[in-house]
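Can't paste images in this forum, so I'm doing it all in text. The chain is below; anyone willing to post the predicted structure tokens underneath?
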Amino acid sequence: MAEFERISITAARKLIAENPSGVHVLDVRDPQSYQSARIPGASHLSNDNVAAFLAAADPNAAVVVYCYHGNSSQGAAQFLVERGFTRAYSLDGGFEQWRLDGPVESPGER
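Text version of the structure:
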């Protein structure tokens, strides 16, 4: 069975920079945390909108999933792999590690 891959902050930044419109960045934290601050361009993924995401997203596009510290995102990335996504990544260190060097998007910026 296929599995997700873990991706470092550095590798994720490079992947996103090289494919600005070809990478889905998904935030699986709670809605308040997502609204407060997030990785630029990230979409919030929850039980409420996962079906719509699965129906609309290209399963061959890269998907970088993040949570707070990189634990919950592993389960979410594996879930996506099990639904046919071929390039699903879990961000090591999660948002808390990412925000140390930025960039971070806040509500007023979007």
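The longest strand covers residues 23-27. The CA atoms of residues 74 and 90 lie 5 Å apart.
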